[in-house]
Every structure is written in C-alpha cells, then in structure tokens.
Amino acid sequence: MLPIILSFALTAPPLAAALASGESPGAARGVGFLRAELTARVDPPALRPGKRQVVGSLGQTRTVYTIDLQIGTPPQAITVAVDTGSPDTWVNPVCATAGSPGLMTACSNIKPFAWAASSTFRDLGLANQLTYGIGAALVEYVSDVLGVGTATIKPQIFGIAIQSRDLGYGILGLSPPLLGGTPPYSYVLDSMVQQKLIASRAFSLDLQAAGDKSGSIIFGGVDTKKFIGALAKVPIVTRPATPTGLDGYWVQLTGVGITTPDGVSHTSSIAPNPVLLDSGTTTITLPAAVVVAVSQLFSGAQYDPGSRTFLVDCANAGAPGTVDFTFGGKVIRVPYSELIWKGGDQCYLLIAVDNQNFPILGTPFLRSAYVVYDQDNNNIHLAQAANCGSNVIAIGTGTDAVPSSTGECTAQPSTT
C-alpha cells in the first residue's frame, strides 16, 4: 500500500487535545532472527478490495494479513496490517470514517492503543499526512516501547491517527524510504538493526494459501521448509526507473503465462515491466494487454468495466490450472483458486487492468510465493511457496547476507 504523498513534520497540537475519545502467539526468536505469526482476516462485505482502487463487486471481500504488536508499558496488544508497500507504522484508525460497513466493523473489532495508560509514552508534537491509493491518515508521531514477536524496540517512533478515511486497520510499514536516502526517523526495520535484534534490514514473508488462517513473517531469517527449489535473487528496481518515481519493492516481471487444467502451458514473454510486491493490496493489477491475454485462456471470460477485470466461469476456480509469473529465470505458479473470487452467482478474475501506471502483485500472488525482502542489498529472493515444517536460518550481513538456500519441500502445493 504505497503512500502517494509524504509531508513529514507538520506541527501538531498535543495528542490529548487532538484525540477525542505480552508476547504474541506463535512468536519465536532465535540467534539473529525474530518470527511472528500473521493472521489472515477475511473482512465482512466491503465496497473496495484493498488499498488500491478496483471498484465494483470485486471489492466485496478482502483478506488482510495482520500482526499483533505489543505497545507501551505495560504492553498492549495492538493489531495492525502488514504492509510492504509503505514505510510508516501507525495505529488507531478512525472507525467512523473507515469507508464501508465492512471496514467499520473490522475496525471496531480491534482494540485501540490506550496511550494514556502507558508509562513510557511520549508525544513528539509532530504530524504527517499519509495519503494512499485509497484512503489517508493524518497521524501524530509519538514514541513508546514496541514489541514484535518476542523482541522489544526501546523506543520506537510511530504514528497515532488523528483523522483517517477508508482505512480499517493501522499499519506496520516495511518498505524502504519512498524518496530514497536517509529516512526522517528510524522505521521499525531500521530500529531492529540498530538495536541488534537482527543483523540486516531483511525479512521473509510466508502468507500461506487462501483459506489458511495464518502465515508468518521472519525478521532477519529464512525458513527453508516453506518453499520449493532454490531462492532466486532478483534486483530491486529503484527510482527514478520505477513507474511512480518512488522507491519500493519493485522487481522486473518478464513473462506471464498460464498452465491450463489439461497441463498445456501457454507462455508469453513481455518487455520487462516493474511490478510492486505489495502485501497491502488484495488484487493483482497488470497492463491491459497482459490481462486480456491471460483472461482469454479462462472459459467464459468477459470483461467487466466496473471492476476493470474479467468475469469467468466459476468452474475455473476448482480446476487444477495455474497462472505463471516469470522473473528472469524464475517462475512462480499461482493456482486458479487463488485468482478467482466468487461474488453472488458471478466469479471474478483477481487480475485487474492497471490504468494508473501502477502495476502490483498483491496478496493473490504473494500467497503462492516465498519472498525474502533484502532492503540493505536492494534484492528480492523468490521461490515457490510450500509448507513442510520449519527450519529457520538467520540472515547475516554484507552482499551475500541472505543465505543461498534450497527449499526442503519437494511437493508442489495443491492447486485446488
């Protein structure tokens, strides 16, 4: 979920005047890494599918991946969405302006951070307007103790929303600084390194398949029992070569194909196209020519202008086919079941036409990929996701910080 506008350090009134109103489960810590559990939350019906705008019926369901942070003294468990598309961390969205009944319900089910109850809380008196593809938040910057998994950052700067719209969750931001250079303050990933909780600004993301209720994020580590084959290193595309002119986890997509249920592969090389690997977006958006070419291999494909994607025969969702994404020599296969959403008696392909020069591979892609984000070395490491247990290896420092690993899983994930 990439912010469009950053205007750091506006003066702000004291937080009390502006605002009217333990350890995470599944966490683990080893030498040089922190593991935290993610929860897949399927929100009640909403008007939009994610932080990027794809209007119409496609947006009536969404799966958001959240993490519980432990903030303050004594610690309070605060649920936020994990976002690889933006750098700022903030809490306490305004539920009354979350934008839809579904998001308002999701927001109201999350306990807000009670800053006045924390003995280590500090109001910094600075504010920032964060504007996203959809939604915005005016946050006041504060500092407090912040726990991730079993580790604690003392202290961490983050935001508390004074106003927000179209956002049902706070955010754990994990992207690099959008304008490059030195960030205005130490983001969470920076603080982990500075306080020697991990060795370098790198983490791995394992969302698991649709229908699974949890996944994990490992700061400073790679789990070799969560993927198949070798991790492929793909350079991050940096500004000004990105479509938005902002930094982020952009990589070159070099091909999109499809393997039909009868096992026939249809491959298509495309001109290298930067795409953003964004856990804060619940769809895939690609150039029109790519979306049309892929959709025509699904039975019953018919373009729906309202959602900027294609209606397809619902029988496709249970078929054992895949859409295949190529990054240089690495192919990630995404099952049909991850890419088709049923709304009423219609089924939508979760690959929408990008009409904003903002191509994104969101959670429908990320559920099939094991991704290591190496911010220090400007690399992404990709492999086909799987699950055959757990064996975490720490990420070190230097140009080869991410270990050259081969996944211990051997079976392809189920496509149904």
UniProtKB/TrEMBL annotation:
Q: Which domain of life is it from?
A: Eukaryota
Q: Which residues form a coiled coil?
A: none
- Which terms are listed as keywords in the entry? Aspartyl protease, Disulfide bond, Hydrolase, Protease, Signal
TM stretches of this protein: none
The record, for Pfam families, names: Asp (PF00026)
Q: What Gene Ontology terms describe what this protein does at the molecular function level?
A: aspartic-type endopeptidase activity
GO BP field: proteolysis
- List each copy of the Peptidase A1 domain by range: 65-383
The record's annotation in Gene3D superfamilies points to: Acid Proteases
What does UniProt give as the signal peptide span? Answer: 1-18
Q: Which CDD domains match?
A: SAP_like (cd05474)
Q: List the disulfide bonds.
A: 314-347
Residue positions of the active site: 83, 278
Q: Which PANTHER family match?
A: ASPARTIC-TYPE ENDOPEPTIDASE, BETA-SITE APP-CLEAVING ENZYME, ISOFORM A-RELATED
Q: Which family is it part of?
A: Belongs to the peptidase A1 family.
Q: What is this protein called?
A: Peptidase A1 domain-containing protein
Q: What is the species of this protein?
A: Thermothielavioides terrestris (strain ATCC 38088 / NRRL 8126)
